[in-house]
Amino acid sequence: MLEITVPVMEPLSGLRRTHSCGELTLEQVGREVTLMGWVHRRRDLGGLIFIDLRDRVGITQVVFNPQTDPVLHKKAGLLRGEFVVAVTGTVHKRPPGTENPQIGTGQVDVIARELRILNTAKPLPLQVSEDQEVDEALRMKYRYLDLRRAGMQSIMHLRHRVTQSVRKFFDQEGFWEVETPLLIKSTPEGARDYLVPSRTNPGRFFALPQSPQIFKQLLMVAGFERYFQIARCLRDEDLRADRQPEFTQIDVEMSFVEQEDVLTLMERLFASVFQECLDYTLPIPFPRLTYKEAMEKYGNDKPELRFGLPILDVSDGVRESEFSVFSDTLAKGGSVKGISLPGKGGLSRKDLDGLGKLAESMGAKGLLSYALTDEGPKSSILKYLSPSSQQKLQELAALKPGDLLLMIADETSRALDCLGKLRVELGRRFDLIPRGKFAFAWIVDFPLFHYNEDTRQLEPQHHPFTSPLQGDLDLLDKDPTRVRAAAYDLVLNGYEVGSGSIRIHQRPLQEKIFNLIGLSMEEAKEKFGFLMEAFEYGAPPHGGIAPGLDRIVMIMAGAETIREVIAFPKNQNANCLLTGAPVEVSEDQLKLLRIRVDQG
RNA sequence: GGGGUCGUCGUUCAGCGGUUUAGGACAUCUGCCUGUCACGCAGAAGAUCGAGGGUUCGAAUCCCUUCGGCCCCGCCA
Fold first, then answer.
1. What percent of chain A has pLDDT over 90?
2. Nucleotides of B strand lying within 7 Å of any protein CB atom
3. Contact at 8 Å (CB) between A462 and A487?
4. Which of A143, A352, A379, A443 is most buried by a 10 A CB count?
5. Among A11, A10, A53, which residue's Cα sits nearest to residue A34?
6. C1’ B73 / CA A535, Å
7. What is the topology classification, in CATH, of domain A138-283+543-600?
8. A26-119 has which fold?
């Protein structure tokens, strides 16, 4: 008898997989099958050996019996976690009482006739077969193992289905998928560019695209009319849980459309994608809020709309109060803003202090409360509030018995900002945010510009190719900060997941905007002359949007960070912990590019 | 650039100035086990407590510095 003591790696040599590990049912009983995959778990009972064989699809139990084939059984005893094997055997109905209802293939097992060990595996730095939390740095270093785990497989499969669903939708709608260049001209406005030196043009550099913006507009000038691209975008900026240096946009541009056309198309896109990929019916149309409404009701331009608790202006309720925080704030033109918390009037002093601390950490000077308890109104500033003030306050906040009103008095924008952050945290703490809900919304009527105090210069809120709203054109000269843009953001569960606009398609207006943001005619020509020239050869009116694929999939998957939905993400320092990139390069490489590194 | 937080066997977690020879679970190794399915049982090996410095009779534990991970501010047209 052949004595096997160490696993020998064997070739496939013609062996073909007949089934996946996820598809065997009672239907295949009696048939000989060949499965290939990884040893997920082994249960060596001394006699019988059970192997859970895993592939991308599922898990099938393979049985090795020492009585039917002692040599094979001995070989099976050498198997360890994550060995790669091919098994040929017969599908059997499991003996009664040994079925496993937890897996789809649990009615059957495969009695092995042949086992080939295609590769071995060392003991693992992280457990593929278990769903425990593992240090993220370790996951990144061994990302190929991390990606084997069920959770990551299902997320990456979801991502695949989303991109396929997006492609199908756009194809049906008559859009052409076009690839735009990765090596492009650097235009240092906005985010920092990743630069690529050109060996054939020493001393000159390409930039990697922050988005395909200009090229998709040129495609409209080219008469493509409807374009989309699953496009990689690159920005050399600092990272966040929802920001990676390279990320993917569903880039879209259309000719002969107005804002409404883009919005409704996107609503149909996401309704279709969510239905197909999650079997979730999105209510359309999505709610639309103006930028101003969003700021006033939710304190930011990407409101979390899975729950209510809008911010209220209660200034009128405390206008007559002699409490100096109120009077001073209002005298200086600030506001008193509040959030009404139904049923939370019974919170203890300690709870309220905790919320106060929280508000302070969010930039508030303090948090004031007013509660309607069983024993009547309760507030640390009760003595400053006359009965009529209280009456007014209760009306403004629609307070019912048992409710709590939290207030911040400050410069209006700061009060809104703090309450906006507080609102979301209150939603979390009091568990007001429904799980499994997807609340899309549009934010519209953004200002075209914002004023940068440091540079004393108007800057585009979106980008300089955004068209002003038709009705606000006359304000461009009079009061540019009041000009609204034909721009729109798509918001989902408190994340900005897309941003778009109707573009400028006429040279004179484009020149005017460049001028207003302080770009001289020379600079404008130097940077964007080719675009303005294109506008002179019959550019159609056009507009578009670019939803962020990573963020949307992250939210669909219920993941906490964008890294969870990217196969090989960077860490917070924009390093790849798996490959070690970025790395220093050799003197020879630099010489070829005529680059010297300042070791500073 | 700034603020916060974490770092203990391969993994995950406990220990947070002294009954610690740093403990459990999983993984690994050895033995037993023929219907297990997170198999079970018995045993073994495995950790200079991220690194460096300091305080102390005594430091995984307190302090400082530093490195690394994560979260946030700035930044992201």
1. 89
2. 1, 10-13, 26-29, 32-40, 68-77
3. yes
4. A443
5. A53
6. 41
7. BirA Bifunctional Protein; domain 2 (3.30.930)
8. OB fold (Dihydrolipoamide Acetyltransferase, E2P) (2.40.50)
